[in-house]
Amino acid sequence: MKLVKRDKYLLIMFAPVFVYYVIFMYIPMPGVLIAFKNFTPGHGIFGGDWVGLQWFAQFIHSIYFWRLLRNTFLLAFLPLLFGFGIPILFAVCIVEIKNQVFKRFAQTITYLPHFISTVVVAGMLINFLSPADGIVNTLLARFGIEKVNFMMEAGWFRTIFTSSEIWQSFGFSSIIYIAAIMSIDPEMYDSGKIDGVSKFQELWHLTLPSIKPTIVILLLLSLGGIMSVGFEKVYLLYNGATYETADVLSTYVYRMGIEGQNYGFATAVGLFNSIITFVLVFTVNRITRRMTNMSLW
């Protein structure tokens, strides 16, 4: 009780998060039984015939299995590959800026995209890339280049998705790195200046090693969610012409479950995705612990 009394304000702040996870994450967990049943609405999750692993086998042997795995992995991995280092470099640049007015302006401008609704971002992309009057195709026409219907060509989807993800997230993601850099003892930088180290040497031998634990933990969290591509943006941007490179597990679950009303099959696909994600988190955590002696647990 003493600990509760001491930390009561922290517990009050934590309470909404706890309630959210209990209601939306833990209470629905018995619903995974649907993945092993021939579920029919109205009979409840405990009703219906037991079919075992039938839905899993059907999904694994379907013609879409490898396409869905490939697209889900690539649409999660490409933003990580090309965008993971950008917040770190941006944080280093922000810390080095001496003009406080410009620093606040730069931070505000880069943070804003994170708070823009996914629906608005998707609408902006569709309008900017419109073959009729989009700004990108207008510029291409000015330079004598033939207009491209970006949203209808499967080959462009990954580029559009990856670039928009990086644009939306790098500013907000840099907050953690800025805080980590600001916590470094200033005397270490002063000692480096006395020894005549360059800015690059300061970055490579002092800043990056000092924030290494933060980098490793965030990398682990990112790798753990590599099979959990955001449903909303993919659903808003893709269409039948781009399924080959855009269709992912979450959109497939939606089409099979909500639109196709094949709830048992859709639940099995979603559970399969969760199992793959768990295995990835566990594996990456063990590898990182052996290589760097740092891990989530």
UniProtKB/TrEMBL annotation:
It is found in: Cell membrane. It holds the Pfam family BPD_transp_1. Residues 69-284 form the ABC transmembrane type-1 domain. It is a multi-pass membrane protein. InterPro entries: MetI-like, MetI-like_sf, UgpAE/MalFG_permease. Keywords: Cell membrane, Membrane, Transmembrane, Transmembrane helix, Transport. The chain crosses the membrane at residues 9-29, 73-97, 109-129, 215-238, 263-284. Belongs to the binding-protein-dependent transport system permease family. This is ABC transporter permease. It comes from Paenibacillus nicotianae.
